[in-house]
Specification:
The complex is a heterodimer of chains A (203) and B (774). Chain A has 203 residues and is of the alpha+beta class. Chain A has 4 helices and 11 strands. An 11-stranded antiparallel beta sheet of chain A has the order 6-5-4-3-2-1-11-10-9-8-7. In chain A, a hairpin with a 5-residue loop joins strand 7 and strand 8. The longest helix of chain A is centred in the N-terminal third of the chain and has 17 residues. The radius of gyration of chain A is 20 Å and the shape is globular. With 774 residues, chain B is α+β, with helices and mostly antiparallel strands. In chain B, the strands form 3 sheets. In chain B, strands 2, 3, 4, 5, 6 and 7 form a 6-stranded antiparallel beta sheet that branches. In chain B, strands 9, 10, 11, 12 and 13 form a 5-stranded antiparallel beta sheet that branches. In chain B, strand 5 and strand 6 form a beta hairpin. The chains are: A alpha+beta (203), B alpha+beta (774). Chains A and B meet through strand 4, strand 5, strand 6 and helix 2 of A and helix 6, helix 7 and strand 4 of B.
């Protein structure tokens, strides 16, 4: 009885600390991710934020498709070569990583955070995921502290099973808040097909 | 007379020693830049000047990549290396800025002029009335999660004209990225950090090379000790120059030693006395002292190739001494004064013909060959004075009592050409030479490829290639030079050229091009652009601003003054612009247009042919073309030299007699390239220049045959044999050189001198000997 009491006491004492939040999900080989996003750009001196929302498709080590549905349809594809943006099916921007090597790091940051590859980001940020009381995690990445020249002061990641929200803060006070929802892991081919279908749905 | 000659010789020698001592007080000013020995290209004057200005810009850089698996280790080692090289006086300054401050400065300077700055594709869209595409693009870029446009930019440039203009022009072929205030690239788990700087000295100056290499090697060794596994990749003219010097030094040392050992052996075998050797060395030393002093006096520094070739001078200057000492065989010239008198005619005629040959060589516009000519002509003159005016005072020994066998043996060649019973052999030999010559002539192939000029060290080339691969830098072989009377005219010419280049890029004939007008358009183009923006975009501005939630004043104020190139000076000038702004004097401004991924050179050449203000430039191609032109010119000069010598020798022998004396030399000159062709050797400018030496040395052999008669014939033949052997030892050994130019010299002379020696007795005239000295 005494032993049982001690065990119970030990459980009660260590319980809350021992109940670590579940680790965020990580994409496995052959898996891809899709979901929705909402973005708010808070630009200093602007009356209201610039809002946009749409769907995203992440095929790790291949491409990230970012399709905006409101306020207007546009599609951004980031692949190994670089970034291209199109409106109504017509390409309006193409930036190669060869032209802008810094973009490659941004792409990796995006891909790693969306795909749950937090270990790489922890190494890059020189910091660990911090468990929060609600069973979630957070991570702050300050490029300059890591010796990187990126046009951001810092990025705050809020992480549940997947990346739930990222706040991108620039040194002049501009701020982007991107929230993610309805994330679903599926085989790469299925996500590709979904991306294709979303593309066809553009007006 | 001989006393005057002695004082002249001693006076010149003392002056030469003083001059050398004064010039060498800071070390031997040896120039290892092989390109510096080349003539200016055959291009137009403005292209030549621009090329020279560009070369001066390009050769004084040192580039190093320091690699380690850990970025911080690579960074620390790279920074230490850079600092040590600057503190040690090797680098003037480090170009370690990541380009951000320059980019910021450029953006700030361009910003007020943004409505006048449009990329070619944006211009086309606006001209085609597709302004909405640019507005859509701005919207997409503003809402993009990777948008780099901040509130300030969006408010003042809601169409994002400037960011897109800069992006269109920012063809960054480099893979290096800015990280922790250095430029770095990661490859296969290794971080490479760039160290780049401008040299504080001349990369082809021997003293600077030694200092730079010593400090570089010491520092990298210390860094490897301190940090462990470091990968150091280096490139720069200073490394190539140092290698070229070391190679020349090694070869000169090797060839010089073999040559000297050969001469010493020959001396003991033939003369069996120490005195001739000692006096021969005095003649050699006089020759080299005279050659070096005069070269330093006129040129200030010594070309690497002239030094290596100067070693070969030993082979010729010793000829005169051989002729003098061969007079000690037999009883023909029992006193020193008589010996000097006996050889004076042959020596003088030989010297004059050689100097005439070298003067012709000096008329070529190759600075290196001018040095060789000056070195040889002045060196030979000193050796000549030494033999004729110093030897008689120092030569106290009695005539040799031995040597009958040698004299008899040396006459065998003479007999071959003059004995009646050997007529069949002569006809056979001549027939064979004619046949071989004719067959060889059909096999001669000219090769003027400058890339063969220097055998670049594989190790350094591999390091350069690795740096190019890691940094993602294309080897830009071709570029255009665009000329105008001022910057505005050049910028307008660039813009016209860009239209053609765009078409070539679209067809895949070229990968890309960079020109200043892509950043700073001409005033006329800026004015056109502003009108286009006013017409096609400004009517949509209010609606666009409303869509973005922007209120307030008009973001595009009117600009009164256009953007000009003069607004970028000094540190604020982007590196690309300073690279492309090649040359500028009042009345002539030249910009370069860099071309990458060239697949169709002819298409570019056609573009250049369209305008006298545009030139297609490739250093390798233009030098190769120059070599070809001067190869032909060298042969013409050789013909002129023969003409001059014919006139000179006709004064003594008559026209037919002079032609007969010149026949062995002319035959050797004609046959040598044919035999080389049969050996698979190409005929280059350097082979053509070597023929000049065969002409001069071959004439010497023939002249001594012509000037000697009776018993002197035997002594002249022996001296000729010794001369030929020593020349082959000195020059023939150059054929072993790894430097193509030197190899070509050596091999041609090996073949040519052998022929000249074998054919020299033809010049003798047993029926009409020259009995009167000159």
């Amino acid at each position: 009885m005494k032993r049982l009491f001690c065990l119970l006491l030990l459980f009660l004492v260590s319980g809350p600390a021992g109940l670590a939040p579940a680790a965020p999900q990580t994409l496995k080989e052959g898996e891809a991710l899709m979901g929705r996003f909402e973005q708010a750009r808070y630009l200093r001196g602007f009356e209201k934020p610039i809002l946009s929302e749409g769907v995203f498709f992440l095929m790790p080590k291949s491409s990230l498709i970012w399709q905006t549905e409101t306020p207007f349809f546009s599609r951004m594809v980031i692949d190994d070569e670089g970034l291209s943006q199109s409106v109504g099916g017509a390409e309006v921007t193409r930036l190669g990583f060869k032209q802008f090597p810094g973009f490659k790091l941004l792409r990796e940051t995006f891909e790693n955070s969306l795909g749950g590859n937090w270990q790489s980001l922890e190494e890059l940020a020189g910091a660990k995921l911090i468990p929060a009381a609600d069973g979630k995690f957070s991570l702050r990445f300050t490029p300059q502290a890591s010796g990187l020249n990126l046009p951001f002061a810092y990025l705050n990641f809020s992480i549940g099973d997947f990346l739930e929200m990222v706040e991108i803060v620039k040194s002049n006070g501009d701020r982007d808040v991107i929230s993610f929802s309805e994330q679903r892991i599926a085989p790469v081919e299925e996500v590709k097909a979904a991306a294709q279908s979303a593309r066809s749905a553009q007006p | 007379m001989s006393r005057v000659g002695l004082w002249v010789y001693l006076g010149l020698l003392i002056a030469a020693v003083i001059l050398i001592g004064w010039r060498l007080k800071d070390g031997l000013p040896l120039d290892t830049n092989v390109v510096a020995m080349l003539p200016q290209s055959e291009s137009a004057e403005w292209v030549v000047r621009a090329e020279a200005a560009e070369r001066a810009q390009g050769t004084d850089q040192l580039i190093v990549l320091v690699g380690n698996a850990n970025f911080e280790t690579a960074r620390a080692a790279a920074q230490m290396l850079g600092k040590t090289l600057v503190d040690g006086g090797v680098l003037k300054s480090l170009q370690n800025h990541t380009g951000q401050s320059t980019f910021r400065h450029m953006s700030e300077t361009l910003f007020p002029h943004r409505t006048g700055l449009l990329s070619e594709s944006d211009r086309r869209l606006l001209m085609a009335g597709q302004g909405q595409t640019l507005i859509d693009r701005a919207m997409v870029q503003i809402v993009s999660p990777l948008s780099l446009a901040d509130a300030e930019v969006i408010r003042r440039d809601p169409f994002l004209l400037l960011p897109n203009y800069l992006a269109a022009g920012a063809e960054n072929s480099s893979k290096l990225q800015s990280r922790a205030n250095v430029l770095a690239v990661e490859e296969k788990g290794v971080w490479y950090v760039l160290v780049r700087g401008r040299l504080a000295g001349n990369p082809f100056d021997k003293g600077f090379q030694t200092r730079a290499l010593k400090l570089f090697d010491e520092t990298t060794q210390q860094l490897v000790k301190a940090h462990g596994d470091l990968k150091i990749l280096k490139t720069g003219a200073v490394f190539y120059g140092e290698h070229a010097y070391r190679q020349a030094e090694d070869e000169a040392g090797f060839i010089g030693v073999i040559s000297l050992v050969g001469i010493i052996l020959l001396n003991f075998l033939v003369f069996r006395s120490f005195q001739p050797l000692a006096l021969i060395l005095v003649a050699i030393a006089s020759g080299i002292t005279g050659g070096l002093a005069v070269t330093l006096l006129f040129f200030g520094s010594l070309q690497m190739l002239a030094l290596v070739f100067g070693v070969g001078l030993i082979g010729i200057s010793v000829d005169y001494a051989f002729h003098y000492f061969c007079e000690k065989f037999g009883s023909g010239a029992p006193t020193a004064a008589l010996r000097a008198r006996a050889v004076r005619s042959g020596l003088t005629l030989g010297l004059v013909s050689s100097v005439l040959g070298f003067i012709t060589l000096a008329l070529t516009p190759f600075p290196g060959l001018q040095q060789i000519a000056l070195f040889s002509a002045s060196g030979l003159t000193m050796a000549y004075l030494c033999v004729l005016y110093l030897f008689p005072y120092l030569d106290r020994a009695t005539p040799f009592s031995h040597g009958e066998k040698l004299l008899a043996a040396s006459m065998k060649l003479h007999d071959f050409w003059w004995r009646k019973e050997l007529r069949g052999g002569r006809i056979l030999l001549i027939g064979m030479l004619v046949l071989v010559g004719l067959f060889g002539a059909t096999r001669i192939t000219a090769d003027d490829d400058v890339r063969r000029l220097q055998s670049l060290p594989q190790e350094l080339q591999a390091e350069e290639q690795a740096i190019r691969y890691l940094a993602g830098v294309d080897n830009q072989t071709y570029r255009f030079f665009v000329r105008g009377s001022g910057a505005e005219e050049v910028l307008q010419a660039e813009e016209a050229l860009a239209l053609d280049l765009e078409a070539l890029r679209a067809s895949g004939a070229i990968g890309n091009y960079r020109m200043i007008s892509q950043f700073i358009p001409s005033k006329a183009r800026q004015s056109e652009n502003r009108a286009l923006v006013d017409r096609a975009l400004m009517p949509q501005l209010e609606q666009h601003m409303a869509a973005l939630g922007l209120a307030g004043e008009q973001p595009y104020p009117r600009v009164d003054q256009p953007l000009t190139l003069d607004q970028f000076t000094g540190e604020g000038m982007p590196e690309l612009i300073s690279q492309l702004r090649v040359y500028g004097t009042p009345g002539i401004v030249v910009h370069a247009v860099m071309l990458s991924g060239v697949k169709d050179r002819e298409a570019l050449a056609r573009l250049a042919d369209k305008s006298g203000h545009i030139a297609l430039v490739s250093q390798a191609d233009s030098l190769s073309k120059t070599f070809g032109a001067y190869r032909v010119r060298a042969l013409i000069m050789l013909g002129i030299a023969y003409g001059v010598v014919l006139v000179f020798l006709s004064l003594r022998y008559g026209v037919m007699g002079a032609l007969k004396v010149m026949l062995p030399s002319m035959s050797a000159v004609a046959l040598a390239p044919c035999l080389l062709a049969l050996m698979g050797e190409p005929f280059t400018f350097f082979n053509a220049m070597s023929l000049m030496l065969i002409f001069a040395i071959g004439l010497d052999y023939a002249l001594f045959n012509r000037e000697s008669a009776g018993h002197r014939q035997r002594r002249a033949m022996l001296a000729n044999g010794l001369s030929a052997l020593s020349t082959l030892l000195a020059f023939g050994l150059l054929a072993l050189s790894d430097t193509f130019a030197i190899h070509a010299f050596g091999l041609t002379i090996l073949v040519g001198i052998t022929l000249a020696y074998l054919l020299a007795p033809i010049a003798a005239d047993t029926k009409n000997p020259m009995t009167e000295p000159l």
